[in-house]
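Researcher: Quick test of sequence recovery. Tokens follow.
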């Protein structure tokens, strides 16, 4: 294996913590304990990176299979050059700025149909979804937002409030305002993977929205991840979005697409989630990939919604869309196009998914292999029939992978899912290295 050099010598990571007890430890504590135990206790101390690789202070090379934010790869020279040039020209926003921010807004809007013509720049995914929610509330004058269970939209007050997987937790840091209604629909990747009737999820979601309207409190909007990142990378059931968007709009509400996780190439299209379903939202929140690692977020909407918002709500961001962010964002978009990274995501993703499925045929601990493009999910279970999660085994697998030079981490509500979302420039050779390493660990 010349790609990564010799496998890293054993790092002697501590063994996985004893079984988790949901009743005793809340999820955040568990996750924190897990992270401290496995990554902070004896972490590889990463100091640089290139493409899909990371290098620690001792010069050891790792394959980064989890960094969805480093869309064009770590330390891309074109991105670095654009940033450094702009840092020497003009660094900050001002009322009279001209150039970078306008050009960047136009570039982003050009990836979407003409109706979505207005761009707000923020600094993160949480800010983007927060603003998207405010746009829906303020422009409709309605306090209720419908969201999905098991989703994650961010940590700010509004985005956390609609992140029901966290807000359902009684110990959650954020509290959940009464204006959020959760849709118990399309939430279960287990259900979807077991072939449950997909239409039922859309019908359940639509029923929640209809019910609110019947109660005289029609929803201001509906927000969902257009691809279930939080569940480990699961596509929404076919026609889900068209049915739910139609219903929310029929009652005068706004359709919000959270494309923070998958927008801009991860699934092989600019906006795979809703493009795949042939529908257009009213508001799109993006971040992560577009910044290639820098704090950049954006909300794209129709001018008419933005104008209504401006009369009701407030928006100002000191650093959102700064000249440096803008040139970085433009360089990232250019690299995605020039290096055909969307196509790479499709091809390498399909290859890797096939390899993981093969692996699943041989190793019963693999429950489901799901996802698309370069957002794949691998679920480890103790029993394929009951799909009983295998969190301790997943933690141990990640430890062993790290010894073999692969950075991976357990995720999901049960900490038994690997979310495989490497930089979009990952090569097939690296994907094979990962699959080979996993094969070795499972064997
Ligand atoms: N929305 C989705 C779907 C996400 O996955 C995330 C982050 O993981 C966010 C929003 C929040 O983004 P950020 O961490 O940049 O605030």
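Model:
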């Amino acid at each position: 294996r010349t790609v990564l050099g010799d496998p890293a010598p054993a790092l002697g990571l501590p063994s996985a913590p004893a079984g988790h007890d949901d009743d005793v430890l809340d999820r955040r504590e568990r996750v924190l304990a897990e992270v401290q135990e496995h990554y902070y206790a004896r972490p590889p101390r990463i100091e640089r990176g290139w493409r899909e690789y990371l290098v620690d202070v001792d010069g050891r090379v790792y394959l980064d299979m989890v960094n969805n934010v480093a869309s064009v790869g770590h330390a891309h020279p074109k991105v670095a050059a654009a940033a450094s040039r702009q840092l020497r020209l003009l660094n900050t926003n001002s009322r009279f700025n001209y150039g970078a921010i306008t050009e960047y807004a136009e570039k982003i809007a050009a990836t979407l149909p003409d109706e979505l013509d207005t761009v707000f720049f923020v600094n993160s995914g949480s800010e983007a979804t927060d603003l998207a929610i405010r746009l829906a509330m303020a422009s409709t004058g309605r306090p209720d937002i419908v969201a999905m269970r098991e989703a994650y939209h961010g940590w700010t007050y509004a985005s956390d409030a609609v992140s029901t997987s966290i807000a359902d937790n009684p110990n959650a840091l954020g509290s959940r305002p009464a204006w959020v209604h959760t849709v118990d629909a399309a939430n279960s990747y287990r259900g979807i993977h077991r072939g449950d009737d997909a239409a039922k999820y859309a019908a359940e979601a639509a029923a929640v929205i209809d019910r609110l309207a019947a109660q005289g409190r029609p929803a201001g909007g509906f927000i969902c991840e257009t691809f279930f990142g939080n569940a480990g990378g699961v596509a929404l059931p076919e026609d889900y979005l068209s049915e739910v968007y139609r219903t929310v709009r029929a009652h005068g509400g706004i359709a919000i697409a959270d494309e923070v996780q998958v927008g801009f190439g991860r699934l092989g299209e600019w906006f795979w989630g809703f493009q795949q379903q042939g529908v257009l939202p009213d508001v799109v929140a993006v971040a992560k990939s577009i910044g290639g690692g820098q704090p950049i977020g954006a909300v794209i909407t129709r001018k008419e919604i933005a104008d209504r918002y401006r009369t009701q709500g407030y928006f100002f961001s000191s650093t959102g869309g700064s000249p440096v962010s803008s040139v970085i964002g433009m360089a990232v978009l250019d690299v995605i196009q020039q290096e055909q990274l969307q196509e790479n995501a499709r091809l390498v993703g399909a290859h890797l998914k096939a390899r993981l499925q093969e692996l699943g045929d041989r190793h019963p601990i693999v429950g489901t292999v799901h996802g698309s493009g370069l957002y794949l999910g691998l679920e480890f279970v103790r029993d394929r029939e009951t799909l009983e999660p295998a969190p301790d085994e997943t933690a141990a697998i990640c430890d062993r992978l790290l010894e073999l030079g692969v950075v991976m981490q357990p995720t999901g509500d049960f900490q038994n899912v690997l979310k495989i979302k490497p930089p979009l420039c990952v090569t097939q050779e690296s994907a094979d290295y990962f699959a080979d390493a996993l094969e070795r660990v499972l064997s």
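The chain has 15 helices and 18 strands.
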